[in-house]
Design brief:
By secondary structure, the chain is mainly α. Helices cover 40% and strands 8% of the residues. It has a two-stranded antiparallel ribbon. The longest helix is centred in the last third of the chain and has 18 residues. It starts with 14 loop residues before the first strand and ends in a 9-residue tail after the last strand. 5% of the residues are buried.
């Protein structure tokens, strides 16, 4: 009988680790722009960068690993 609290291994095939810089850039972008890609009003550029950097530091200290899909083959028009 298996333990119901055991976390199954996460399949990592096709995934690559993300650098802290990439994570911070993605978080800062999400804070500066809305879901449609329009800038959020109020000049949040500096605040977004500071918040993103702080979140990345916390994620690193907490042992989080962020993965992303490896780039696929380029699209061919045909």
């Amino acid at each position: 009988m298996s333990d119901p609290l055991t976390i199954p291994p996460i399949p990592t095939a096709g995934l690559a680790p993300v650098s802290p810089k990439e994570i911070a850039e993605s978080i800062a972008y999400a804070l500066r722009y809305d879901a449609r890609g329009k800038p959020v009003s109020g000049g949040w550029e500096l605040a977004a960068k500071l918040a993103a950097d702080r979140l990345v530091e916390h994620l690193e200290r907490s042992g989080f690993v962020v993965l992303k899909r490896r780039p696929g083959a380029p699209h061919s028009a045909g």
